[in-house]
Amino acid sequence: KAVVSTQSTGEGKAEIVPGVLFVDEVHMLDIECFSYLNRALEHDMAPVLIMATNRGITKIRGTSYVSPHGIPIDLLDRLLIIATTPYTERDTKQILSIRCEEED
């Protein structure tokens, strides 16, 4: 299960359920999508959010601003960025373990 996002949950057109949400090509989202994701992360049942992009500094869609990965700075500040250089399985488990302890 994941997040279904068409409009804000306040309008009853979207639902947040526990799970993992994977967003590939995240730089293609617009500012309204990022705003929704930011709010969803504060929900009691917020999903684990995994985003992927191959962009560096690029324009945030729907704005005239540029930022790393095309992600708004306020959301970017809340993310753990894991470079996709090859990690061992042990390294990945350690990174996730540390992050889980921080969130607990």
Keywords:
alpha+beta; two-stranded antiparallel sheet; 4 strands; disordered N terminus; 3 helices; 28% helix
Describe this structure in words.
With 104 residues, the chain is α+β, with helices and mostly antiparallel strands. The chain has helices spanning 31-40, 73-76, 89-103; strands at residues 20-23, 48-51, 57-59, 66-68. It has 3 helices and 4 strands, in the order E-H-E-E-E-H-H. The relative contact order is 0.15. Mean pLDDT is 83; it is low at 1-8.
Mean model confidence by pLDDT: 83
Please compute the radius of gyration using only Cα atoms.
15 Å
The number of distinct helices, counting runs of at least 4 residues, comes to 3
Number of strands: 4
Strand order of the largest sheet: 1-2
Helix content: 25-40%
Strand content: 5-15%
Q: What coarse outline follows from CA principal-axis ratios?
A: globular
**Poorly predicted ranges (pLDDT <50, ≥5 residues)?**
1-8
| Intertermini distance | 21 Å
Helix/strand-derived category reads alpha+beta
Q: Mind describing the biggest β-sheet?
A: 2 strands, parallel
Return the string of H and E elements: EHEEEHH
